[in-house]
Amino acid sequence: MNTTSPFPEDAGDSPHMSLLGSEFVSFDEATSTAIMRFTVKREMTTWRGGVQGGLVAGYLDDVMGFAYVAATSGESAPLNLEISMSLIRLIPEGVLIGTGRVVKAGRKVIILEGELHSEDGKLMARATSTALPTPRPSATETGMG
Predict the structure, then answer these.
(1) What's the pTM?
(2) Percent of the chain with pLDDT over 70
(3) CA angle, corner 37, sides to 66 and 139, nearest 5?
(4) CB atoms < 10 A from the CB of 76, how many?
(5) Is 106 a domain residue?
(6) Strand locations in the chain, DSSP E?
C-alpha cells in the first residue's frame, strides 16, 4: 500500500480540505482504494450533535474523488453527475475514516464508491457517485494559487 500521496504537490492546499479536516492516509493501486482521515469540527454539526447531511456528502465526495485522482496519478479529476448517499448513523464531532474506491473508470463515465466509518469501525455513511472524467485543474489555472 502506498502511504506517500499520489497527488501533485499542491493537492493538500485546496481550501475545502481545510474545511473538512481532510488528511491523506493511503492509496492502494491494486484496488484503486484511497483512505482518508477527517477531523469533524463542531461547525459541521447541527443542534442534534451530528454532521448536517449535505456536509456528510462533502466528506464522501472528497474520499471518492481522491481515489480517482490518485488512480490517475493526479492527471484527472471527477466531475460529479450524481451522488447517492445513505446516512446510517449520526456523525458526531471527532474523527472519521473515509474509504473511496474507483469501481469503473471509463473514458466517458466513472463509477465511485465511498464509506465513512467511526474510529472504532462502525459504518456511518456510504455513497456511490457517477461522474465524468476531466483534466485535474491546478490552483494556478483556477486563479486560487
Answers:
(1) 0.88
(2) 85
(3) 40
(4) 17
(5) yes
(6) 22-28, 33-40, 76-87, 94-105, 110-118, 123-135
Cβ pair 65, 100 in contact under 8 A: yes
Averaged pLDDT, 46-56: 93
Domain contains 122 = yes
Give CA–CA dist 80/129, Å, rounded: 7
Q: Is 46 part of a structural domain of the chain?
A: yes
Residue 70, domain CATH? 3.10.129.10
Helix (H, G, I), strand (E, B) or coil at 52: coil
* Residue 122 to residue 89: CA distance in whole angstroms: 9
Domain housing 25: 9-139
- C-alpha torsion sign, points 83, 52, 67, 116: negative
Query: Residue 145 falls within a domain, yes or no?
Result: no
Q: Helix (H, G, I), strand (E, B), or coil: what is residue 141?
A: helix
Cα angle vertex 31, ends 102, 91, to 5°?
Answer: 60
Confidence tier at 143 by pLDDT (50, 70, 90): low
* DSSP 8-state symbol, 7: S
| Structural domain count of the chain | 1
- Mean of the pLDDT values across residues 53-68? 95
